[in-house]
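We modelled the chain as a single entity of 385 amino acids. Its sequence is:
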Amino acid sequence: MNKFLILLSILLLQACEQAPTAVVQREEVKLLVTASGEIESKQTALIAPPSVAHMWQYQIKQLTPENSRVKKGQLLVSFDDKTVSEGLVDKKGDLDRAQKEFDNKKIKETEKEQELILALAEKSMEHDKAKRKGEIFDNSRSENDRKKAEIDFTIATNDLFLAQEKLNFHLSNYKLNLKRAQGKIDRLTAEVNGFLRDIEKLKVKAPIDGMVIYKANWQGEKPAEGENIQFGQPVIELAVIEQLQLKAQIAEPDSGKIKLGQSVKITLDGTQELVFQGEIVSLGRVFRDKSHQDKRRIFDVIIAFENNNSSFIRPGMTARIEVTTKVFENVLTLPTTAIKNLKQNTTVDLVGLFGQERIQIDIAEVLNNKVVISNGIQEGDVVAL
């Protein structure tokens, strides 16, 4: 009888060995959210064509090579200034003509002033002469001579007044004409200076120290010398590489699991994978489409590096992240393939000495490929897959 039991046990064990099984393990389990992102700088400056009157298209004349380190005030990109230079030449011509007109007008007005001063002096002499004649008292003069002298004095007085008024009118009109001509010169000078400023503005210089990163357009094409771009289209992003961070895109279904302060494992893509640790420091406020082609909803998170002293990290590099959203310590786990009816009345097939027994268990959490068991089974138990 004992021999029979031993033989039966051996046969049962052999049968169990042939079927795939899993052992209940006690371990630490991390609940992870995976995503992708891109390295960026905390401090950046976008470089785009400057605002120049009547210009909507800009041709790139000179472009600083990508990944170059530049200092504040160094030339980054210059745009073709042919249109502005042609306008400058025309305005300078207008200014020269206006200046010559002003000089000629000033000479003519001065000459006219001198003529009127001489005329006034002449009328003043005639007035004095007529006055003296009228004041002569001589009984030998006839009544007609005295009346004629009075009339001549009245006429001389009127002529003197008229000459003075002409001079006064000329002086006031002279100042007005010169002021109008000077205003035209000032306006044209301002326009010339505006063209000079626009030419200087088309030579865009670095506002901060940083690294040059070309900004691709909506078609994914980066700028190049000789190309035309539209007003407002960024050409360069100037990044301070001493202040790098990771901007990652979290899928909408995982958004509720992400919180500030969670630890993040960062793996940089490349021929040599580099792994860093980080922490979530900022959460996006709105959801958006991942791209024009990919309409999946995502939101952005900012991750700070715990230590980014590596010289290999550069803005624009892509990375994969794993966010630890929850940690289960010292818990029992099984593969999800060992679970029967995961949604309700969860069971497993416990492998024993005399065969398999279906028992009910309680599950605390379902992970990607594991389940955390809260009750119904013990560490070291063997279950069938």
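As a brief sanity check on the tokenised model: The chain has a mean pLDDT of 85. Helices lie at 2-18, 82-135, 143-201.
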